Amino acid sequence: MADRIDRLKDDVDDRVKGDAYDRLKSDRLRDDGENRPKGDGEVKSAHLFVLVHGLWGGPNHMSTIERAILDGLSTVTDDKIVTLKPSSFRFWKTYDGIQVNAERVMTDILYEIETLKEKQNYHVNKISIIGYSLGGLISRYVIGKFYELGVFSYIEPVFFTTFATPHVGVEFLNDNFFDKTANALGQYLFGKSGRQIFITDHEHLLVKMADPNSIYYQGLLKFKKHLLLANVKNDRTVAFFTSFITDYAPFEDWNKIKIEYLSNLPQSRIGNHYVKPKVIDLKLSNSLDEISDDDFKGNMQEATSILRSNKVFKFLIIIVGALFLIPIWIPLVLISSLIASIYSMVKIRILNHPNIKKHWQRVLNSVYQGGPIDEDDFKAGQARRDQRDRLSQHESFKGDTSELTENTMENILYAEERFTGKLSDVNPDDDDFDRGRDYESSEGSGNELNDSTPKPTAISTSINTSKPTEKIIDINKDLNDKLAATHLSHLKNINYNEYPLFNKDTKVNLLDNKKFIIENLNKIDWIKLPVYQDSFNAHDGIVARRGERTSPKGTTTIYFWISFLRIFTKSDKESTK
C-alpha cells in the first residue's frame, strides 16, 4: 500500500489564492487529528477549473491565471469556484509525451473530485480546462478520453482556453541554417513530447486529435465556449501561426508593421504600473508600406523601463550573454536536455499506466451515484493536496534546472533573431532581465504605491499578501466586461479578408497534415485573442508566470480574458432563473 500511495504522490498545486482563496480556505477542512466529514450537510455545486502548465513547467506558472479566475468569477456565479493545478507531470516529466502526461492529469482530476466531495461536500458538476503551451495539447487529449468514458454525461464542460499552445505543431519557418537545424534536431531534444509537437511521431497524434471523427475533436465540441490567446511576436517557442491556428505568418517583417489595439480598452493598475490589455485589432494593424505615418517610432508600450530599453545596455547584455552562453552554457543545457530526453524515452517504455476507466467507475459510483468514497482514493487525494501545498512554496532543484533550460532555449532563439535581423524593437520591462527575482507568491511583498500616485476609479481587487490592505490589482471589472462584449463579435468572427496583414505574401506553405489540422480546428467556434507584449519573453508573459507585479501587461490581458468568462457565466445564470 505504501508503494501505491508513494506512486500517487505526484506534486500538484491546487492551492487557491486571492480573496476567493480565503473564502474557499474557510470551507476546506484539514486532517488534524479529527475525523474527516462524511458528506453531511448541504451539498454545494462546484465548478472545477483545471489549469494545465506546459513544457519544462510547473503548477506555479498558472498561479496568476488561478488568482484571476477566483477573483473574477466567484462573484458572478452561485457555484463554488475551485481550481486545480496538476503538477504530477511537472518539469522534466513533461518530456514523457502527451498521452502519459494526460493520464497523470486525469488521475489528478478524479482524485480531486473525490476529495472535494468527501471533505467539503462539493459536488463537481461543471468543469473548465485551461491549457498553457504544451498543456493545451495535453488538455485536448484529456478531453477526448473523458468524452470516451462518458464523464461529460455527469459533468458539464463549460470553458476551454489555450494560451500560446502549438495546435499546429512546432515549426521554424525561415529558410536559413538555424531554422533548418532547429527543425531537424528539435524533435530529439524533448523526449516523446518533442516528436509529437514536431509531428514526427509514428501516429501523428496532433493530426489524429484534429480529425472531426476522433474522440478528441468530439469531446472538444462538448465545451460551451472555446477561447485562445496567441502571441503575435516575441514568442520564440510557439509561433503565432500555430497558436492562432492559421496558415498565415503576418508579423515576420516586424519593423514594417504598425500595430493597433482594440479600441477603448480600459487602463488598470497592476502593482505600480498603469497598463491596458494588449489585444491587437487585426483589422486596423497594417504594413507601413500601406499607411503614411512619418512619426511612427515603433510599436512602443507603456510600463517599460527606460534603462532596460536602452540599446547600448541591451547590446552589452547580448555580448556578455554570448561570451558565456556559446562556449559554456548552451552545450551544457543541450546535453542535459538530450540526457533527459533519452531517460524519458526509456522510462515511458516500462511505466505502469493508471487504469483511468476503473478510477472513473469508482468516482461515478461514489460521487455521482451516492456510494461511499474509496478509502485509498481519499488518502491518495489528500496526500496530493498536501504535497501541492508544499510544492507551492518551492519548486525543487528539478524545477530550477528545467526552468534554466527553458530560459536558455529562449536565449538561443533570441540570439538567432538578433543576428538574422528579425528582432523587433523589444523594450524589456524590469522583469525581462531580472532573472534572479523569485516568483511572486501569495506571501510576496512589494513596494506600495506612493500616496501621490493618481488612482483610477476601479473595483479594487486585493490579492492575499503579507500586507492584507495592500492592493496589488486595481481593475474595473464591469468596464472590462462591457468592452469585452463590444469586441466579442470581432474576435469571434475571424475573416482573413478583413485583415490587411493576412495576404499572399504572408501565407505560409505548410505540409498537408498541418493544413488538415488548421482546416478542421477552425470549424470549431473559437474566440481568438491576438496579443502583443513588447517584452523579451512573451511566452512567459502571456500567462504572467512570475506574478502580477512582474508581468503587469500579461496580468491585465488575463483579466480581459476573464471578462469573456464573466459575460458567459452571467448570461447562463440569467437564463436559468
Automatic annotation (TrEMBL):
Keywords: Lipid degradation, Lipid metabolism, Membrane, Transmembrane, Transmembrane helix. The chain crosses the membrane at residues 315-343. GO terms for cellular component: lipid droplet. GO terms for molecular function: monoacylglycerol lipase activity; phosphatidylcholine lysophospholipase activity. Residues 44-242 form the DUF676 domain. Residues 375-402, 422-464 are annotated as: Disordered. Residues 442-464 have a biased composition (Polar residues). InterPro entries: AB_hydrolase_fold, DUF676_lipase-like, Lipase-like. Residues 383-401 have a biased composition (Basic and acidic residues). GO terms for biological process: lipid catabolic process. PANTHER family: LIPASE ROG1-RELATED-RELATED, LIPID DROPLET PHOSPHOLIPASE 1. Belongs to the putative lipase ROG1 family. This is DUF676-domain-containing protein.
